[in-house]
Write a structure and sequence with these properties.
Distance between the termini: 55 Å
Helix content: 40-55%
Radius of gyration: 45 Å
Order of helices and strands: HHEEHEEEHHEHEEHEEHHEE
Oligomer: single chain
Strand content: 15-25%
Shape: rod-shaped
Strand order of the largest sheet: 2-1-5-4-3
Structural class: alpha+beta
Length: 429
């Protein structure tokens, strides 16, 4: 179980890592494109102002950009009033010839010139700088007269929008990742639950099988050791011991056969189904079980309807009827009564096996079909039961899409009911 839990955690970790990489790449591409689009837009605005001598008239849309014409990059009637910028024309000596600060409030004429001179000194045609809490982009170009035109644009809102988008998209990505972890943890837990349950059942089955096999083997070893280590043991005692060894060997054989049947069922090693007439099989089982019933002083009766046909194999039908009848005879007690009925009901063929024994405690009813489960362990072993008969019945009918159930009778005793879907050709007349 620890291995399954470890694999479950590793699966969640790997799945989370994969989704994290996908989200990280997606957010990186989206935010990168967003940043490049804003940078391109700022560049277009600066060039537009520079091409118009340091003022805005109309705005040029860059060709071959990230966004097509007619996008939000396009001019609006309010564009001239929304854009915050200033321009400074410097001569070759760095002296300001013209300063236009009509569209900016954060710079005076002197500070505008200082910012322009500082931009020229960087040696770059374009760049960014910080002033107080604002971010500004600059563009330096040379006019036909040999002067330097410096345009500085307030791009605080644009870059703040990019930062805000990065922040909230990252938070959204983190939320999606956490949501994914929660969902995949729950759903994968549900998905592996049957596997975990099967592993637990298998582990319990192996433990119980080992115990069941160990008991007769230990008895055989004890009896043989007693014979070998006791000198001059009388023949009657030897005969009793050998008889007990034979009984334990027979029990060991029954357990082994039942385990092999369950292994075949678990491996889906089933023969192809055929249409089986149940009535002849029932009669055959009743003849076999009548001797056992007589030995135990149990009254075994049956009633059946003809033309009850099911889709299975004759061996499977025989095993189901035999196991249920054998179980009823063993636990009905002395002077008990067992009643087997076969009938049509709706579109099903129904087999019921009822006895007047002590019944099954209500808390044990859901467990009676579990492997090696016994209501009365001591009584079951004394009766020769392996604890696998009912499990074989349930697994056999389930493999064919049928059902078996157990219930207590109102007048005392238990009743087991098997329902097969009626095969084609069934005749109720």
């Amino acid at each position: 179980m620890d291995m399954i839990k470890k694999l479950h955690r590793q699966f969640i970790l790997l799945a989370t890592l994969a989704v994290f990489i996908i989200i990280a790449v997606a957010l990186s591409v989206i935010n990168g494109m967003m940043y490049l689009i804003v940078r391109g837009d700022i560049h277009d605005v600066l060039e537009t102002i520079a091409d118009n001598g340091g003022v805005i008239t109309t705005r040029r849309i860059s060709e071959g950009g990230w966004l097509p014409d007619g996008s939000w990059v396009e001019d609006t009637p309010e564009f001239t009033y929304q854009t915050r910028y200033f321009s400074v024309l410097l001569d070759s000596d760095g002296t300001a010839k013209v300063t236009n600060i009509n569209h900016i409030a954060a710079f005076s004429a002197e500070s505008a010139v200082e910012a322009a001179v500082a931009a020229v000194k960087t040696g770059e045609s374009e760049g960014y700088f910080q002033k107080q809490k604002g971010t500004y982009a600059y563009h330096v170009s040379r006019t036909t007269d040999g002067d330097l035109l410096v345009v500085i644009l307030d791009c605080t809102r644009d870059l703040s929008a990019v930062k805000a988008f990065l922040k909230y998209s990252s938070l959204f990505g983190l939320l999606c990742l956490l949501l994914f972890v929660g969902i995949v943890t729950v759903l994968s837990g549900i998905a592996i639950r049957p596997f975990v349950r099967n592993m637990e059942n298998q582990k319990r089955f192996i433990t119980n099988a080992s115990h069941e096999l160990k008991t007769p083997l230990a008895a055989i070893r004890l009896l043989t050791d007693s014979i070998l280590q006791t000198d001059q043991m009388d023949m009657e005692t030897v005969r009793d011991f050998v008889t007990d060894i034979g009984s334990e060997a027979e029990r060991l054989s029954r357990i082994t056969e039942d385990l092999l049947r369950l292994t075949r069922l678990d491996s889906d090693l089933l023969d192809a189904p055929e249409t089986v007439e149940v009535a002849p099989v029932l009669e055959q089982v009743m003849r076999m079980m009548s001797l056992l019933a007589q030995e135990k002083g149990t009254e075994l009766t049956y009633r059946m309807e003809e033309n009850c046909r099911v889709s299975a194999t004759k061996g499977e039908v025989h095993q189901v009827i035999y196991n249920l009848t054998d179980n009823a005879v063993k636990y009905s007690g002395k002077n008990g009564k067992v009643r087997v009925e076969l009938r049509h009901e709706d579109r099903d063929v129904v087999l019921t096996v009822a006895d007047n024994g002590p019944g099954i405690p209500e808390e044990d009813l859901p467990k009676v079909f579990e492997r090696f489960y016994r209501v009365d362990k001591a009584r079951s072993r004394a009766a020769g039961g392996t604890g696998l008969g009912l499990s074989i019945v349930q697994d056999t009918v389930k493999k064919r899409g049928c059902t078996v159930s157990a219930a207590n009778r109102a007048g005392g005793g238990a009743v087991f009911t098997v329902r097969w879907p009626e095969a084609e050709g069934g005749d109720r007349s």
